[in-house]
């Protein structure tokens, strides 16, 4: 996951590397994702999110569609 | 409570090192488990492997100690350091770290046994530098870089280069639990269901 100055910089990078586009999100979305994912990582009884929990988090942040689908 | 938000009685912000290392566990279960682990250290030297719930509890304690050290120092510890702090055999801790990696609680260096990342903390300098008031951390990606102030409940500045290597420096500021400053767009190269197939490229 890389941070780019703008969508234009992403397109330039994809073309230069001959890569297919993935998905983009705003910094605010990424902050919300990171906060939900990691804010309890130092808790004694921390555990990883289940796929269902992660899917619900993605949806809450507005990350929907096939790219964000965790279910087979 | 591991992390305390607010001011100490002196009026100064609490130092995270003292919070992480001197704060006694409040859960009786954890206190008991750690005492039991310490008492059983000598016994375990002669035992080939843990099993079942005891293994899970041992792994939990190893993970917690490892992450506490990373948070308090900015440095992901080796298995030797974790073993010494817990007074446990090095090999038992190494086994726990391998199980934690299998469970995706941390990432081992490619082809090796050393820890590359105890996410969100990266063990080596990377393209994502996170600075808090107290120290500098590294992260393997922008998600983890933002995860460090989230994990620490701390203000931070994140520095990285634009992903297309145009040379532009991007700076983000996390303050009071919010993204206070910074611009940019995050790109994910691999669909979510395949994140862990190539975590470096993702």
Q: What would you note in describing this structure?
A:
The complex is a heterodimer of chains A (72) and B (202). Chain A is globular, with a radius of gyration of 15 Å. Chain A has three helices and two strands, in the order βαβαα. With 72 residues, chain A is mainly α. Chain B is α+β, with helices and mostly antiparallel strands and 202 residues long. Chain B is built from seven helices and nine strands. A five-stranded antiparallel sheet of chain B has the order 5-4-6-7-8, with helices on one face. In chain B, strands 1-2-3 form a three-stranded antiparallel sheet. In chain B, helix 4 (52-73) crosses helix 6 (90-102). The radius of gyration of chain B is 19 Å and the shape is globular. The model of chain B is unreliable at 1-32 and 41-48 (pLDDT under 50). Classes of the chains: A mainly alpha (72), B alpha+beta (202). Chains A and B meet through strand 1, helix 1, strand 2 and helix 2 of A and helix 4, helix 7, strand 7 and strand 9 of B.
Q: Strand portion of chain A, in percent?
A: 5-15%
Structural class of chain A: mainly alpha
Which runs of chain A of at least 5 residues are low in confidence (pLDDT < 50)? none
Termini separation of chain A comes to: 23 Å
Shape of chain A: globular
N- to C-terminal distance of chain B: 34 Å
- Please give the largest β-sheet of chain B: 5 strands, antiparallel
Helix amount of chain A: 40-55%
Topology of helices and strands:
The complex is a heterodimer of chains A (72) and B (202).
Chain A: E1 2-4, H1 7-17, E2 23-26, H2 27-38, H3 51-61
Chain B: H1 16-22, H2 28-39, H3 41-45, H4 52-73, H5 79-86, H6 90-102, E1 107-108, E2 115-118, E3 121-122, E4 128-131, E5 136-139, H7 142-152, E6 156-161, E7 169-175, E8 178-181, E9 185-188
Antiparallel strand pairs in B: 1-2, 2-3, 4-5, 4-6, 6-7, 7-8
